[in-house]
Amino acid sequence: MTTTLYLMKVRWSWIVSIAAFLISGGVLSPMNCYTWLFTSLQSEINATAVQSGWIGSTVLSTNFLAGPLAVIVESYLGYRLTTILGSILASSFMLLASYMNSYGGLLLFYGVGYGITSCFVMHATLCVLMKHFSKSNRSKASAVVYVGASVGTSLLAMLYEKLIPLGGWRLTLRVSSVIVFLLAVPNSCVMYSKEEIERKQSVSLKVDETLHMEMKNRDRIEKSVVSSISDKIDTKHGDSALHACEDETRGTNTWLRLFTSLNPLLLLIALFLLGIAWTAYWVNIISYFESLLMNESAILLNATVANVSEVLGRMFLLLFVGKLPLREVNLLILMSLFSTVVTLAFVLTPTEPVILCCCVFIGIGRGWSIILPYAAATDLLKGHTMDQAVTLVMIAHGLGFLFGTLPPGLIYDATNSYAYAFIINSILYMIGAALLVLLQVRRRCSKVKNIQRRRRRRRQSETENKIRKTGSDWSGSINHGYDNR
Fold first, then answer.
1. Are 21 and 28 a contacting pair, CB within 8 Å?
2. How far is the C-alpha of 337 from the C-alpha of 392, rounded, in Å?
3. Burial class of residue 359 in the structure, from the number of CB atoms within 10 Å of its CB (0-12 exposed, 13-18 middle, 19+ buried)
4. What is the CATH number of the domain that holds 67?
5. Residue by residue, what is the 3-state secondary structure of 179-225?
6. Where are the alpha helices (DSSP H) in 217-284?
7. For residue 114, is it within any domain?
8. Would 7 be classed as within a structural domain?
9. CA atoms within 13 A on the CB side of 296
10. What pLDDT tens digit does each residue of the chain (485 aa) get?
11. Quick check: 394 and 119 in contact, CB under 8 A?
12. C-alpha torsion angle, residues 192, 193, 196, 198 (rounded to 10)
């Protein structure tokens, strides 16, 4: 039993990584493929571009915004049960949405219900996976999750292309709900954190040791076990009585400090603006291709290139993020600046070769824009826990996706074109990059101040030691003089 649990501890990180890959591929791929449902929903329920885009924007935003709610659920149920429950509910809400005949029903069941429950799954999965990786490899941990989502999105997009002409969006949602259930629920059963594995191993070792000692001397071991258990119970009750109030106060203060400090707020605003800019590439990109009067083969080619590039970009981060000379924050800044150029080229020169080349970067940028902020937040937000950094990033992404579809939808309904919307997004990329640069400057200034403060304290302590040593030498010489007299 001990040997089995030891192997579980050593190899469980690989098991959890594979499970997270499949879970994210099942849960996130339907919302990433919503752009294929955009025009079909818009024509059947007689919705405007804003309304149809708002459904996809809501499901993407609630998938991140429900992070604080996921933390509360995890505190009661734990990571594993939260993942299982969220997977079942996500599949159920998607199935119920396929029977809705109104815009409000789709927004409620698909946008809100499926989005919130998918957040439960992904938040718990990310937290479990990051606990199995060291701090330097947390970018790889988040890349494992979202590479699975990219692979699932690429495969599901091909399936959507065949299903929508055959059975419409209703059959497509029902098939998607089955895929979510089959991929997410079984794999959620293995989502044990590293601490839970170590706890099981320690319990097994204690049980094996107790049984071995009982075989030697049953009577003596029984007495020692009884006294040991009573001591542990007393210690446990004493510790809980002394530290319960302190832990609660400390946790509340850290969350308040997270949302009231300047650096977390700057990071929140930067990721929020970048989320708004990237929403058009998640929700409105197929509608933009159709507004350019592209044929179906060209639309499929561009979408496939973007999806494949997204997979390759996330796999690149998974393999080389720890070996690159640039930090994750610097990569995010460079990507945002380059996105400005690509977005302007995407809308100002809408020829097929230019759009195809832009789709390569769009796919890479979509993947990096989701993965890099998690590692950047844990790096920038010193003094905050990993769960708080993940929650802050999810809130920023959620707010960005929630409001990101409004400018493109309103502009398209008014002008029948997405040109001004993409120009606005290029400006948002620059503002987001500027805020991240400001965070880097503040971080370096803070480091310099800390170094100077430590140097001053060291010089002050050295001076005090010299004064103390000089005083002791002076008093020793006086005492020596009195002795001679």
1. no
2. 23
3. buried
4. 1.20.1250.20
5. HHHHHHHHHHCCCCCHHHHHHHHHHHHHHHHHHHHHHHCHHHHHHHH
6. 218-260, 262-283
7. yes
8. no
9. 5
10. 444 444 444 466 778 888 888 998 899 888 888 878 877 787 777 777 777 778 888 888 888 888 788 888 888 888 889 999 999 999 999 999 989 888 888 889 998 999 999 989 988 888 887 777 666 565 666 667 777 887 888 888 888 888 888 888 888 899 999 999 999 999 888 877 666 655 554 544 444 455 455 555 554 544 454 444 444 434 444 444 334 344 444 545 566 666 677 888 888 899 999 988 888 888 788 888 888 888 888 888 888 888 888 888 878 877 776 677 778 888 889 999 999 998 898 888 888 888 888 889 988 888 888 888 877 887 777 666 666 777 788 888 888 888 888 888 888 888 888 888 889 999 999 999 999 999 888 888 877 777 877 778 787 777 777 777 665 555 555 554 545 54
11. yes
12. 120
Dist. CA 97–CA 102, nearest whole Å: 10
- Per the domain annotation, does 472 fall within a domain? no
CA distance linking residue 366 with residue 342, whole number of Å: 13
Query: pLDDT (tens digit, 9 = 90+) per residue, 250-289?
Result: 545 566 666 677 888 888 899 999 988 888 888 788 888 8
In a domain, 230, yes or no: no
Q: Which domain holds residue 87?
A: 15-193+253-445
Q: Which residues touch 417 (CB under 8 Å, ≥6 apart)?
A: 291, 411
User: Of the candidates 279, 243, 252, which has an alpha carbon nearest to the alpha carbon of residue 55?
Assistant: 279
How far, rounded to the nearest angstrom, does the alpha carbon of residue 96 sit from its chain's CA centroid? 27
Length of the chain measured in residues: 485
Decide: 69 and 398 in contact? Cβ < 8 Å: no
Give the C-alpha separation, 111 to 65, whole Å. 12
Cα separation, 292 vs 299, in Å, equals 10
Handedness of CA 126, 129, 132, 137 (dihedral sign): negative
How many structural domains does the chain have?
Answer: 1
Task: Let me know: does 109 contact 100? Beta carbons within 8 Å.
Answer: yes
